[in-house]
Amino acid sequence: MALTGVLRPGHAQLRVLNLEEGVHHYRDVLGMVETGRDEQGRVYLKCWDERDHNSLVLREADRAGIDFVGFKVLDKATLDKLEGDLRAYGLATERIPAGELLATGERVRFRLPSGHDIELYAEKQAVGNGLQVLNPAPWTKASENGIAPVRLDHCLLYGPNIAEVQKIFCDVLGFYLVERVLTPDGAGNVAIWLSCSHKVHDIAFVEHPEPGKLHHLSFLLESWEEVLRAADIMAMNNVQVDIGPTRHGVTRGCTIYAWDPSGNRFETFMGGYQPYPDYEPTTWTFDGLGAGGGLDYPQRKLHESFLSVVT
Ligand code: M3P
Ligand code: FE
């Protein structure tokens, strides 16, 4: 099998200021499926076409932002191996027992030098996508609820030391660099897009002085028409839009950035392209991010909120 090691981003735990407002947004407007609640009061959701029990966990807190991002790995042997590799690299790891997150096996957690907590896990209950595996229909009723993305696709995180973060993902966890934006002097990167798969990114980072920040969690749609329909649904539900609908030059994704009721940015997007690990990374100059259309290809400007609004 070609796809081994780290498979995909599997879950993110998001802090919301008001739980039921957050549930309304992610379940009824974005159109995820609620799959459980735990004794801590956390709410679990998945996108309709995801097969594992949950991909988004909402926790009520007095400040918005992200608690952790979890990546599913191939199996338990891979989990043990990657834990050893992280430790050998010099990172501290912590084991969180199975069941601490509903329907989820043991997790290995570590903190990046950007201040973000990342987890690896091998097991999560497969609840299916509502379709039988034998002679299935192409979609279900759940795919007609709200914006209805097919999966949690990636996140963009803001924090310090992204050169070191890139080394951890690429040298220890088997990711590769797909695109990057150079610093104004061209000596380093201000932004990196990393993939562990055939996706244009599974996680991305922007260099930022404050650690542990969330720029956006992103959800995949399958057509430009669905992105435009998402914009209609956002407007009908008074969801505040940040940028779009438009296209990113970086990754070529066709996108909307918008805010949930707690001020966490989320993205609904389609497209991009399918890179391979042997591709030379695409490089954008710092000016290219704005005037070159990296952020917003048609408008060719660096929207002020891109660098300043994070949770
Ligand atoms: C994405 C995406 C920028 C490009 C961002 C890309 C900030 O968020 O999902 O493709 O230039
Ligand atoms: Fe994105």
TrEMBL record:
Keywords: Aromatic hydrocarbons catabolism, Dioxygenase, Iron, Metal-binding, Oxidoreductase, Repeat. It catalyses: catechol + O2 = (2Z,4E)-2-hydroxy-6-oxohexa-2,4-dienoate + H(+). Residues 8-123, 151-271 form the VOC domain. CDD domains: 2_3_CTD_C (cd07243), 2_3_CTD_N (cd07265). Gene3D superfamilies: 2,3-Dihydroxybiphenyl 1,2-Dioxygenase, domain 1. Pfam families: Diox-like_N, Glyoxalase. Its EC number is 1.13.11.2. It comes from the Bacteria. Its cofactor is Fe(2+). The keyword Disulfide bond does not apply. GO terms for molecular function: catechol 2,3-dioxygenase activity; ferrous iron binding. Homotetramer. Belongs to the extradiol ring-cleavage dioxygenase family. This is Metapyrocatechase. It comes from Azoarcus sp. (strain BH72).
